[in-house]
Amino acid sequence: MLKSTLNFINQIAPFEEVEAHCDIPCGIYDPHHAIIACLTAIRMTDLIVAHKNEKSSVEWLNEVSRYVAEKEKHAEIVKHEIRVIWGDFYKAPQFEKYPNLHDLTHSIMLLGSKVRQEVNKEAALQLLAKLNEFAEIFWEIKGVETYRATSPYKPELEVVYPKLG
Amino acid sequence: MISIVKIKGRSMEPDLHHGDYIVVLTIFLNRLRLGDWVIINHPRFGRIIKEICDVSVEGFGVKGLSQHSTDSTSLGLITQDMVLGKVLFRISN
Predict the structure, then answer these.
(1) I need a surface site. Which of A4, A68, A73, B16 has the fewest CB within 10 A?
(2) Helix (H) or strand (E) holding A160
(3) Top-tier CATH class for A31-162
């Protein structure tokens, strides 16, 4: 509430800003971490669904709780990784060349939240599709060719890899 | 004096996030302690916010909270005259 009020005031009369930047830009960005996290979230979704008809027990509760916790964690990793690339790596020239980057990033945020909140395989697959699209743009900007291949582990879905070497 | 300042950047995460606000005391800055968050006018990095991690007779050592922040060695010794304010409290979501 207080922050919202300050945000409103800030629009009219901006407050002074102080830098809390990451002072040593490492320059290391890679969307693959987000893709791996998404695959994990999909895998957890599959495992939760696979256990849905089992009789409730302490062991069942423990197991499903762990799946849910991992799904939550990795969906958030997806959002974090993409936010960092969008906020720190992309600059005005990239936004001009790829005008859909903002919308694409925003859709990843929304789908990431949906994957966290729900047990929704369809949303998780849509999230992966958006991440693949994001990764292809990222590597194109870096001048690195990409290819799509099926991940060599469950959930065995098609993901974008950089063609290195 | 007291002022409100907006945070830009992520070096104070997880405690302070980009877009948060802080209420800053800009007077009576002669009793700074370990753990205080301070606004510094740094000759290399400009106006930055950091946490005091070392106190000596010559000045202070400061650091960010995020693993991505500059370490205290790179920031160098912070002298009293470089300190512009001390954070009283934060306003975040």
Answers:
(1) A4
(2) strand A158-162
(3) mainly alpha
CATH no. for B2-91:
2.10.109.10
Report domain extents, chain B: 2-91
Residue of A nearest to B20 (CA): A3
Please give the DSSP secondary-structure letter assigned to residue A24. S
Judged by CB atoms closer than 8 Å, whether chains meet at B49 and A22 is answered as: no
ipTM (interface pTM): 0.81
What is the tens place of the pLDDT at every residue in B13-40? 778 888 899 999 998 888 899 999 999 9
Distance CA B37, CA B60 (A): 12
Parallel, antiparallel, or unpaired for β B46-55 and A158-162?
unpaired
Is the overall model pTM greater than 0.80, yes or no?
A: no
Q: Which pLDDT belongs to residue A72?
A: 96
Interchain pair A20, B74: CB under 8 A: no
Interface test with A, best of B18, B21, B73, B86 (most A CBs within 10 A): B21
φ, ψ of residue B64 in degrees (nearest 5): -85, 170
**Pairing, β B60-63 against β B46-55:** antiparallel
Does residue B3 surpass a pLDDT of 70? Answer: yes
**What digits encode the pLDDT tens for the residues A1-48?**
788 889 889 888 888 888 886 655 556 789 999 999 999 999 999 999
Give me the residues paired with residue A147 across strands: A161
Chain A to chain B, count of Cβ pairs less than 8 Å apart?
75
Cα separation, A32 vs A12, in Å, equals 40
User: In A, what residues contact B, Cβ < 8 A?
Assistant: 2-3, 6, 10, 14-24, 26
